[in-house]
Amino acid sequence: MDASSARHRAIGAIRARVLAAGTGGWFRDAEHVQLAVASAARAPDEITAVLFNDAVRRAVRGRAAALAITGDEWRALFGVDTRPWKEDGVAQCAGQAGCVDVLAKLQHALRCTVSETNEAKAWSNTWNRLAVYVALHLSDTETHIASTLGNFVGGDSRRVEELAVSMEDDGIDALALSAAIDCLSKTVA
User: 29-39 and 44-51 are packed helices; what angle lies between their axes, rounded to 10 degrees?
Assistant: First the structure.
């Protein structure tokens, strides 16, 4: 299956889950993707509260696991072989103070992974780095990072987990993360 077909299938599956939750009939596809990604976050209610209004939040409360983006959908939308349809605002979003700080820490935490030739090439792309930034906040971090960069070296596992826990302890920057989710979703849907 080519990348475009996989992307369309992923967006269709996400749309169907959101509509089955009783909300999102007025959403654009990018907003369906936003809800699926936000639902996969370690703090889904916090991110959903920034991205969506009260009616949507009430409709999806307690349904994060059912709405969350799957590994296959993440790969189809943000995988190493996938390219965005447009990159409007990606550099600006990745350049936000909160995002820049976390990306620097991520590069250090992923030092084994990004020292590999193909993964270094993927990491050098701003869109991929922004996707990895979002993946850091999701429940299946390593799988999503591996999908976006092409691989995940096990030697980075502890450092990435420690970074994620440290960020949770300090409180995530919900505005920066929501902006990144919004920006990424608009590049693929």
Answer: 150
Task: Say if CB 149 and CB 119 are below 8 A apart.
Answer: yes
Question: What's the gap between Cα 51 and its chain centre?
Answer: 14
The span from the CA of 74 to the CA of 81, in Å, is 12
Reduced DSSP (H G I as helix, E B as strand, rest coil) percent helix, strand, coil of the chain, to 5? 70, 0, 25
In tens digits, the chain (189 residues) has pLDDT values of 687 899 999 999 999 999 998 887 889 999 999 999 999 999 899 999 999 999 998 888 889 999 999 999 999 999 999 988 888 889 999 999 889 999 999 999 999 999 999 999 999 999 999 999 999 999 999 999 999 999 999 999 999 999 999 988 888 899 999 999 999 999 998
Q: Look at the alpha carbons of 38, 39, 41, 42 in this order and tell me if their dihedral is positive or negative.
A: positive
Quote the tokens at residue 20.
């089955």
Question: Phi, psi (5° rounding) for residue 138?
Answer: -95, 165
Distance in angstroms (rounded) separating the CA atoms of residues 2 and 82: 10
Direct distance between the N- and C-terminal alpha carbons of the chain, in angstroms, rounded to an integer: 18
Q: Are 50 and 60 in contact (CB under 8 A)?
A: no
